[in-house]
Every structure is written in C-alpha cells, then in structure tokens.
Structure prediction request, 89 residues.
Amino acid sequence: MAKTSQLARNEKRIKLVAKYAAKRAALKAAGDVEGLQKLPRNSSPSRVKNRCAISGRSRAYMRPFGLSRITFRELAREGKVPGVKKASW
Prediction:
C-alpha cells in the first residue's frame, strides 16, 4: 500500500487539473504562454500519476483495468475481473 500522503497529494493534483482544465485550454488556444506559466504547477495533467485503484501502487499500472499487475493477477485468479480468465492450453 502506498503512503497516504502520496495518495492525498495525487488526489489534490487531480482536483486542480479538473478545476483549471477550461482555463488551460483557453490559454493554449490563444497561445498565451505567460498566462499558462502563472497557473499552479500541479494543475498540469502531466503531473498526475497513474495509481492502482486498490493498492495505490504506481509501478506496473495496467491502464485498461486501472490496477497494478499484482492486484490484477489476484482479482483475475478469483474471477472478479470481467472478461478475463486464466489461460490454459
């Protein structure tokens, strides 16, 4: 499990990205680089880290499922991920 401070920091960034999304898009369309620089640094979407929805792990994140490889494997083995089953041939 990731530290709760890291999870909270990432949640704060997600909220800031949503808050400034319209303003950022308008400034980009206008080509106002100075205006973009005045926005908060954490309002940039590239600063948000993909994290596992269950464990908060940041590495080995599987985008289609929103889970880390370890959590995905456990849930798939239990049959809790729709459309996924263990391969056997």
Observations:
- The helical segments are 4-30, 33-38, 69-77.
- The first strand starts at residue 61 and ends at 62.
- The chain has a mean pLDDT of 93.
- The first helix runs from residue 4 to 30.
